[in-house]
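Researcher: Good morning. I'm working through a list of sequences from a screen, and I'd like to move beyond sequence-only analysis. For each chain I'm collecting a predicted structure so we can compare shapes side by side. This is the next one on the list. No need for commentary yet; just the structure.
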Amino acid sequence: MLVDLKMPGISGFEVAEWINGMSGSRPVVVVVSALATVEAAVEVTRHGAFDFLVKPFTPSDLLQVVERAV
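Model: Good morning. Structure tokens for this chain:
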């Protein structure tokens, strides 16, 4: 699942926590954001996200993340 870090009413951090908390299995959550900080990347993985992808990204960048997730 791809989620943005900043969304109206809820953050990508909260979405990653919620998805990982409600699922019996561990879904793969990739957070995308224009906020390219090391702190943000660490924080999203702390909240259960698989990876962090900085916008703008290329189709090749996205494919690499998906291949790692598989």
